[in-house]
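Re: weekly structure request thread

Next one in the queue (175 aa):
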Amino acid sequence: MARRPRLNLAGVPQHLVQRGNNRQVCFYIDQDYAVYLDKLKEYSRRYKVAVHAFVLMTNHVHLLVTPTTPLGVSQMMQALGRYYVRYINITHGRSGTLWEGRYKSSLVDSEHYLLLVSRYIELNPVRANMVAHPAEYPWSSYQHKDQGVRVVDSSIPRFLDSLVIWSFAEECIRD
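Done, posted below.
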């Protein structure tokens, strides 16, 4: 059976979920989380995808992103996946697949829903009883949103501007 094509629309936010194969661990040590975030930042800029929210759980990842090109998210996730799986396999002496198939994506069609998805993502460690408050979990965007950085980028819808954590924009303004 052929895979269904993704609906990729430039300027429309997407909620992405990628799970570990058989829900197994994808992040073994703190360095793994740091490498993933570093590459997420690099590839989101390269493929012009704004990152609004994220959480890296032990066995899955949630991202809230907005591409500025129709292929931006696919290209970013493909590059990120290739790099990270190779890194994990070499670093931890394993082989084979890390992720459970393709990442799942859902379009986020309103400002209200965008805020709900962002909150859902950042509260994931609390719901999983890993921490009592999202500020206690180091691998989520909750940590970054308190830095007061606003990205000025005309290709991102204005209502998303205050939610952007990482962007390809050159100009950042401290609020």
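The longest helix spans residues 72-91. Strands lie at 14-19, 49-56, 60-67, 104-107, 149-151, 172-174.
Next request, please.
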